[in-house]
Amino acid sequence: MGESMTASALETEALAKRFGGLVATDNVSFRLEPGARHALIGPNGAGKTTFINLLTGVMNPSAGRVLLAGEDITGLRPEARVRRGLVRTFQINQLFDDLTPLETLSLAVSERLGLGGDWRRRLGAAGSIAREVDRVAARFGLADSLGLRTDTLPYGKQRLLEIAVAFAASPKVLLLDEPAAGVPEAERRDILDAIAALPADVSVLLIEHDMDLVFSFARRISVLVDGALLVEGEPDAIAKDARVRAVYLGESRHA
Amino acid sequence: MATILFDGVAYGMLLFVLACGLAVTLGLMNFVNLAHGAFAMAGGYVTVLLMDNWDAPFLACLPVAFALPAAIGLLLERTLYRHMYGRSHLDQVLFSIGMVFIAVAATDYFLGSSQRNIHLPDWLRGRGQVMGVSVGLYRAFIIVLCGALAFGLQAGLMKTRFGSRLRASVDDARVARGLGIPVGMVFAATFAVGSGLAGLGGALGTELLGIDPYFPLKFMIYFLIVVTVGGTSGITGPFVASLLLGVADVMGKYYLSSALGGFVIYVVVIVVLVLRPSGLFARAR
Amino acid sequence: MNAALGLARRARWRWLEMAFWIAAFAAILMPAGAHLILNEIAILALFALSLDLILGYAGIISLGHAAFFGLGAYAAGLMCKYFAQEPLLGLAVAMAASGLTGLLSSLLVLRGSDLTRLMVTLGVALVLHEIANALPQWTGGADGLQGMVVGPLLGRFAFDLFGRTAYAYSLATLFVLFLLARRVVYSPFGMSLMAIRRNQLRASALGVPVNRRLIAVYALAATYAGAAGALLAQTTAYVSLDVLEFNRSADVLLALIIGGAGWLYGGIVGALVFKILQDYLSSSAPQFWLFWMGLFLIVLALVGRERLRAGMRGALTWAKA
Predict the structure, then answer these.
(1) Closest to C61 (Cβ–Cβ): which among B89, B262, B263?
(2) Which of C191, C202, C206 is the closest to A123 by Cβ?
(3) Assigned domain for C26 exists
(4) Hey, which of B24, B165, B212, C77 has its CA 20 to 30 A from C243?
C-alpha cells in the first residue's frame, strides 16, 4: 500500500480466501494499472480461478478488499461489479447454447446501456442496441455468424464470442480466463489478433498457460503459486527469474 | 407436556425413516425422486393386506414391508431410473411425478380409494409409564425401533466398507469411479435400501397416519421439507430435521387449534429458509 | 444479416399465428355446442401461459402454480359474492391479489436451489389450501363457494348456460394478456430471462440483476394465473377447494410440457391437446386418466423433450415456409 501517482484500474489489498484449513488465496496484494496488459501465470492449482472469482464477486473473501478504480467493491454482487466496468470471460465457454450470437450480444449491450429492464419495447426497436451489436460483431469477425445457433459454431468462433460478449459489456477492466484454451491451431490466430486489438483504454488481465501468448501480449507478469504472489515484473525479468523456473521446472519433475 | 414431546419425537422418528432414503439418494445421485412416497405406500399396503387376508402378525409384516419395496426399488432403478441420472431437474420431476401417478392410479383401481387401517397386536396397544411419563406403547415402540435403525444406519455409513464407498460416491462420483468403486452398484443398493426403509416407514405409519392411495402425494411435501431442511450430505441432518418437524407439528396441533397448528410446520420451514437458505446442515462446496 | 434486421425478424408475427387467433375469435360465432369446452380450453391456456413465463422463460420449476390460480378464483368469487357483480372488477382484484402473493412468495422461492424451489412452490399451494379449508365461513370449505351471482359483462353481455359469452370473455382476456406477454418476451427484459434460464452464472456476469428480474416475472406470472382462476370462478359461478389442489398444478405442468415450454404458444397448444385427451380418456374409470398422464410423463421424460421438440420443429418449419 504505497503512494501511487495514479489510481489503479483494479487493486486488491491482502485478499485471502480460506476453505476450512485450505488456503486458496494467500494475502494477495495486487495492482492492475490503467491501460495494462498484465498476465497472471502459475502452475495448475495455484488458485488463479479462485482469484478471478474473488475479483468478480462470485466468491466472498475471507479477508482483504477489492478496489475498482479506487472504489471498494468488496461487498458488491457480481452484476453490480459488471455495471462498474469489471467484466470477465470464462475458461470453459459459458454461452447460451441455443441462442444466437445476435441475441447474446444484444443482451450484453442492452444491459450495459441500462435498457435491460425494459419490458415494453421490442429488443432492437431503439437502433442503439443493433448498431452497437454490429460494431462488436465486426470487431471480432462474427458478423456472418450472428443468426446461427451458438452451439453450431466452430469452437474457435465460440471462443471469440465468449470474448466479444464480455467486450460488449463495455469493460474498463477485462479479465480473460485462458481465452485460447482448447482452440484448434487454425483458429488461434483470430483469438490472438482480437486480444491484441483491444482498445488501449481497457485494462486487461490475462490468465494463461500458453507462454507464447503470455510473452507476446504482456507488458507485466505476475506469478501466482499456492495462492500467493511469488513475484511480479516485466516479461524479461520473469523469464530469467530463478524461482519462477524452479516452480515450473519443479512442476514438470513431479508430473 | 412431556407426553406431547414424546409424541412429537415418535412422529419425527417415523418421518426420518420415511424420508432418509430420499435424502441419501438425492445426495448421491442428485436425483429428485418425488415418487419416494410410493414405496412407503407399498409397505403400508403390504402390511394391511398381509394382516387382513392372512392374519399375519404385525411384527412379521415389517420385514416384508421392507423387502418388497426394496426389491421393487432395485428393479425400477436398474431399468428406468438410471436413465434419468444425468438429466435436467425438470425431466426428473416429470419422470417421478409420472411414477407417482401410475402408482396412485394402480393402487386406487385395484385396492379401492378408502383409507385402510390395521389392528395392532395387544401388546402394542394402550399406554405405559416411562420415567414417570405416560406414553403410548406404540409410539414408544416406534421410537425404539426407529432410533435403533438410525443408529444402525449411521454406524453402517461410518464404519462399513459399503458405507465408505457410499460416502465417497456422494462426495464425488467421478473420482470414486476412478478409484475403482462400483458406483452404479452403490447407487442401486442405496436406492433399494432407501425404498425399503420408506416401505418400513409406511408400514409403521399406518397406525398413526392411515394408508390410502393418495399417500405419496399427501406426504410428498413432508419428505421434501425433511430433505431441504436437513440437507443431503449424510443422515444426521435429516434426523435432526425430522425430529424438529415432528415435534413442531405435534406441539403446534396440540397447543393451537388443529387448523392453525398445521401451519406451525410451515412457519418453521420459512424461518429456516430465511436464515439458512441451504438448509440447516449445508455442506460447503 | 445485420443486427437490426435480425432483431426485427425474430419478433415479427408469423401468418400461422394470425390465422390461429382469427380462427379462435371466429369460433365465438359458431352455433352453440362447443363453447363450454372452448371456454375451459381458453382458461387452461391462460393458466399454462402463466406457467410458461416462469418455466419456459425463466427456468423456475413450480409444483404449486395452482396457488395463484386458486387465489385468483377465490378472490373473484368473494368479490362477486360480497362486493360487486361486474366481472371485470373481480378480474382486476383477482389479478392484483395473486400478483401481490406472487411477489411475496417469490422472495422465498428464489432462495436456495432447485430442490428448495420445488418444496416452496408446493408448500405455498398447500398452505393456501389449508387456509381455504380452515375458513369455511368465507370460502365455503369443502362444499365450495356458493351463491355467486355473476353480473353481465360490461353490464350488457349476460352469461348463460351455453357459454358463448363465457368463451368470448375468456378468449378476449387470454388474447390481451397474450399480447402483453409477447411484448415482454421479445423485450430486453425477456431476453435477460432467457439468458437466466440457460446460464444464470453467465447472465449475472453480464450485469443482469438476476434476482430482481426473476421476482418481476414471478409476480407477473402469478397475476396471469390469478386471472385464469378468476375466469373459471366467474364463468362457472362456483369455486371449490380443488382450484388449489396439487392436481391442478400437475395438470397445468403437463399441459405446458405437451405444448412445449419456451415458445409462448406451448401453453395454448398444450391446453388444447390436454383437454381433448382428458375428455376422451376420462370417460372410462377416472383412475385411467391419472394412469395415462403418468405413463405419458414417464415416456416423455425418458425419450427426452429435446428429441420431441426437434421433431416438432421440423414439422413447424415446413408449415411456416
Answers:
(1) B89
(2) C191
(3) yes
(4) B212
Closest by CA position to C208, among listed B51, B109, A206, A110: A110
Q: What is the DSSP letter of C150?
A: P
| Total count of domains within chain A | 1
For B238, the 3-state DSSP assignment is helix
Q: Are B37 and B209 in contact (CB under 8 A)?
A: no
Chain A contact for C1 (CB, 8 A cutoff): yes
Query: What would the pLDDT profile of C129-148 be if each residue is shown by its tens digit?
Result: 988 988 888 888 888 888 88
Write out the DSSP string of C2-36: -HHHHHHHHTSPPHHHHHHHHHHHHGGGSPTTSHH
Kindly report, residue by residue over B132-174, the tens digit of the pLDDT.
777 788 888 888 888 898 888 888 888 888 888 888 877 777 8
- Interface mutation vs chain A, best among C5, C7, C183, most A CBs within 10 Å: C7
Enumerate the residues of chain A whose CB falls inside 8 A of the CB of residue C183: 119-120, 122
Buried-exposed string C154-189: b where 16+ CB fall within 10 A, e elsewhere: eeeeebeeebbbbbbbbbebbeebbeebbbbbbbbb
**Per-residue pLDDT band at C307 (split at 50, 70, 90):** low
- CATH label of the domain that carries residue C259: 1.10.3470
B262 occurs within a structural domain:
no
Q: Are A27 and A14 in contact (CB under 8 A)?
A: yes
Q: Give the CA distances from residue B225 to residues B93, B196, C189, in Å, rounded to whole numbers and listed in that order.
A: 16, 20, 33
Q: Give percent of chain B above pLDDT 90.
A: 30
Range of the domain at B199: 16-116+136-230
Grid coordinates belonging to C2: 445485420
φ, ψ dihedrals at A25, nearest 5°? -130, 125
CA A236, A238, A240 angle in degrees (round to 5)? 70
Nearest-CB residue to A99 (from C4, C194, C210): C194
- Identify whether C288 is part of a domain: no
Q: Are A159 and A210 in contact (CB under 8 A)?
A: no
Task: Establish if C10 belongs to a structural domain.
Answer: no
Task: Please check whether residue A60 lies inside any domain of the structure.
Answer: yes
> Which amino acid, one-letter code, is at C12?
R
Which residues neighbour B166 within 8 Å (Cβ) at sequence distance 6 or greater? B24, B28, B157, B186, B190
In a domain, A140, yes or no: no
pLDDT digits (tens, 9 = 90+) for C73-110: 999 999 998 888 889 999 999 999 999 999 999 998 88
C13 Cβ under 8 Å from any chain A Cβ? no
DSSP structural state of residue C145: B
Residue A186 sits in a domain whose CATH number is 3.40.50.300
pLDDT at position A254 is 47
User: Residue B260 domain-assigned?
Assistant: no
